[in-house]
Amino acid sequence: MAKLTTQPYKGARDFYPEDMRLQRYIYKVWREISERYGYEEYDAPMLELTDLYRAKTGEEIVNEQTYSFTDRGGRDVTIRPEMTPSLARMVAARQQELAFPLRWYSIPNLWRYERPQHGRLREHWQLNVDIFGVGSIAAEFEVIKVADSIMRAFGASEDMYTIKINSRQLLSQLMGDYLKLDVMRAHKLSKLLDRKDKLSEVAFNLQAEEIVGDEMIRLKELLTIDSIDALPTVVVESGLAENLRQLIADLEEYGVNNVKFDLTLMRGFDYYTGTVFEFFDTSPNNPRAILGGGRYDELTGIFGQVNVPAVGFAAGDVTLADFLNTHQLTPSLSSATDVYVAVIGNNEKTARKLAASLRQAGVNAAIDYTGRKAAAQIKTALKQKIPYVIFVGDEEAKTAKYTLKNLKTEKEQKAGVNELVTLLQS
Amino acid sequence: MAKLTTQPYKGARDFYPEDMRLQRYIYKVWREISERYGYEEYDAPMLELTDLYRAKTGEEIVNEQTYSFTDRGGRDVTIRPEMTPSLARMVAARQQELAFPLRWYSIPNLWRYERPQHGRLREHWQLNVDIFGVGSIAAEFEVIKVADSIMRAFGASEDMYTIKINSRQLLSQLMGDYLKLDVMRAHKLSKLLDRKDKLSEVAFNLQAEEIVGDEMIRLKELLTIDSIDALPTVVVESGLAENLRQLIADLEEYGVNNVKFDLTLMRGFDYYTGTVFEFFDTSPNNPRAILGGGRYDELTGIFGQVNVPAVGFAAGDVTLADFLNTHQLTPSLSSATDVYVAVIGNNEKTARKLAASLRQAGVNAAIDYTGRKAAAQIKTALKQKIPYVIFVGDEEAKTAKYTLKNLKTEKEQKAGVNELVTLLQS
Description:
2 copies of one chain form a homodimer.
Chain A (H helix, E strand, L loop, with lengths): L16 H20 L3 E2 L5 E3 L1 H6 L2 H7 L1 E4 L5 E4 L4 H10 L8 E5 L2 E3 L11 E10 L4 H17 L7 E7 H11 L4 H12 L6 H12 L3 H9 L8 H5 L2 H14 L5 E3 L13 E7 L7 E7 L14 E7 H10 L12 E5 L4 H13 L4 E3 L6 H10 L4 E5 L1 H6 L2 E5 L5 E4 L1 H9 L1
Parallel strand pairs in A: 1-5, 8-9, 13-14, 13-15
Antiparallel strand pairs in A: 2-4, 3-4, 5-7, 6-7, 7-12, 8-10, 10-11, 11-12, 15-16, 16-17
Helix pairs in contact in A: 1-5, 5-11, 7-8
């Protein structure tokens, strides 16, 4: 047989313990802050019937970017490319029994068939935070506050990212009542706006003119608007502009000062119905969205249930890690193992007893069973980022006093079992 | 469009927060104990090239039970049915740089296309604990001790499960030197032994006789052996029996007294090369394996690397949950949210300020934004298993003294913000 490759599947990652430490740190912060705001963890299967995504995920993703296949029983299934459809399915399934408002979060892995590139891989992990059952902007306020608190917990300061905010409803109204576009043209224009950053100005203008025709001048004017106050009176009168203004004011009252109105912000998914937002890295070295979300009030309806208002956001591990690296916020993380017990000579039994006592007291301890020289055993501990080594040789076995070495400071000291526990726990 | 189903994919589970609490408890114990013994977490992609499993996973699984398909780039891929091949791939990929012994663990979700039944679902989560680089029985001792400590941490006592133990090498020697079977027949007999519990005695005997012929009497004698001392001299002289005896003695020295030699124990995978073991539920209501593992010293070789000795085990969440239920060890778990802030009347702003102060102090707090009556808000907290409610009404907004209600005891008390923090943290 030809020898097998040791490479992971293209666009997916192996997490060696050193890589996993960063993942664990990311998941821990995500969990801590989500729970601080009263969100509870849920999970769903990694496979769903393909129909679930046909409804609202968006054609490009379903037709070109999913991992879809037929199972051995003839069902069309898809590895989840996003979590929101599974979430809406779960809420709809128990809509009568559940106690609203629901605050739920999850950290699923998701798959998209794409060309792997900076910030985008085929498999990634994604925090999903959603609130169901609150129709007022209190929901947007809270969800954006959760996202912002997460960024702060990672050490980010407000100059490192901008929070772009917009409203699909407001945009709809502008396209209908101001630009006088019919539903079809309005939909086309939204899709074009969503791709605006990927097009040259000339290309964008050409395609926009095809859609809006004579209204091109008004569209261009609209696209220069960068504050809510400058919006046409039609959206001011309907209250949509006031809603956004109030939301931004509420956020400012709670110390979130980097919110910026952006009329071109769309967010890709078809299911958004109101506010949309995006946290965008301000560094010129990593000009990309770190997380995004919005209001989707009509998603449980696709399961034959009454619609429940909902707001949520999603944040990916790959884009976050890039952000942390860009701003030098990636922490230096050591092993979960507190101490490495090096065995010198024929003292395995003593080492085993010692390790058992340490573990009993809650110390995470690994034993070297290789019988190598002390230097080789220390090297193993260093490579595995374990901060301490205890040596167990003939002398130590006899006196029950062990040498504890701090691998960072290289300081050594002799200590009995109880003292070792105290030293290692401090 | 026809309405979509709200059911999860067949044989897979939705984890609502109440279900997720149990999963989180299981993962937490798995992580804590694995780390106590110096194991570090790793992870690998959920998709692998199908070739990875063709080598050593076993034909039945690969041909009949995997989720395999061709990706959009023409690659044959499989959703992982087990973790060990990915682990061996990762070790082989960095075999020169890694510092051995390696102690690694992971909690992947795995997929098998099977008829869903008690204890077996299509998607399950599985703890994998493995040590690489230790050829002596110190590795078996440690790995079995980790598994045993996990059972104890879940509250199990030694009468609730038996640790069955056997050796593939010892069995090989018996089949070759004692039953005089050639390699082909020996392989067939192993496969038959693996299925022994699923067959009637008559069916087993018929199929066994076809393989061993005249040696049927000796085979039957072998199968009655239930202690190492009763084994034929051929395996006693080779030292294999002594190895097992020593392992059992070592475990007993450390308080593991429920180990039982079982010559028919095989464990399904083709890659095991030495000791195999299995933790088996002693309850007649749940007579099944809870976890299993063994030694596999020849797995990195399939990647063109030198073989590294390895021992590991895997434990599934579904079988564990069944075990906990059977023995009434499933704990009662409450929400991660400490307190629910009920808003009475037009006091949302005060509630928000209060919640912010609580969160600042590390209390997990959710706010009710629905404007419903107090009773309805309490009901939401009760349903979500949140232990405390704080009421924020006109009186509270004025005095900054809030009513804290313990939903279990129904006791109420008035307190200011700082006092609330102290009460909720104790």
